[in-house]
Amino acid sequence: MSEQQQQHESGSDSPASEGVAAHSNSMASKEVMPDSNSFTSEEVKPVSPQDKSEESTQPSKERWSGGVHLTLDCNVDAAWSLQSDFLGLVKWVPTISICSHEAGPYNDVGCVRYCKGSGTTWVYERLLEMDHAQKYMSYIMEKNQFVFRDGFQDYIAKVQLGDAGEGKTWVKWTYEVDPVATQTLESLTTFMTKFYTSNLEFLKEGANKTKPSRRIAQRIWQQSMCCRARSLF
């Protein structure tokens, strides 16, 4: 392990930040997201957990899933240019102070990034899929200390963007994760909805080249954190 990675994991760097519906064994086959006609409102629509009524001979471990789909007032190509830059979070997320290449191909499938931002959060994430034609990507969070006491286990996220017309972009961002010991399903769903919405606000501002100041970004971040603070233990 490199000296830089040891420093990352020890939390000795500057302060930190930063997630799919579908079963974890399905990540090899890309889920086709709804077309843009499904997203015509500015209102955030939480994504319901996937129907798990399929018969199975093997017991399945419990997984929590959710996400958002909403419409951003920005150009889809500009938004995808930022979203698809796996190593470029510092370009549009003001709360991220570090986004570095740690392993694998540079900015391509298999790439591992290390991210650190506000608070004490740090994460290693690996890019699983990238489809520029469909504006679709997925990634998995590996070693991490994400927000909660024990971080996230087996967290997988999928993101897809599409043209909503009139210069707007629809986004579907979903996740699946093992149950979090310090949270209920309801409290985690509330937190992740606010967390995703805050980051997509940053994406919209970045696509419009009106990146918010760090002070405003910190306020948006703190608002997304407030629900987590009330239900940590």
Structure write-up:
This protein is α+β, with helices and mostly antiparallel strands and 233 residues long. It has a domain at 64-212: 2-Layer Sandwich (Alpha-D-Glucose-1,6-Bisphosphate, Chain A, domain 4), CATH 3.30.530.20. The chain has helices spanning 3-10, 76-83, 185-207, 214-229, and strands at residues 45-46, 64-72, 96-103, 112-117, 122-131, 136-145, 155-165, 168-177. It has an eight-stranded antiparallel sheet with strand order 1-2-8-7-6-5-4-3, sandwiched between helices. Strand 7 and strand 8 form a beta hairpin. Helix 3 (185-207) runs antiparallel to helix 4 (214-229). The longest helix has 23 residues, at 185-207. It is globular. The model is unreliable at 10-43, 49-56 and 227-233 (pLDDT under 50).
What is the topological layout?
Blueprint: H1 3-10, E1 45-46, E2 64-72, H2 76-83, E3 96-103, E4 112-117, E5 122-131, E6 136-145, E7 155-165, E8 168-177, H3 185-207, H4 214-229
Antiparallel strand pairs: 1-2, 2-8, 3-4, 4-5, 5-6, 6-7, 7-8
InterPro entries: LFS, Polyketide_cyclase/dehydratase, START-like_dom_sf
Biased composition (Polar residues): 1-15
Region (Disordered): 1-64
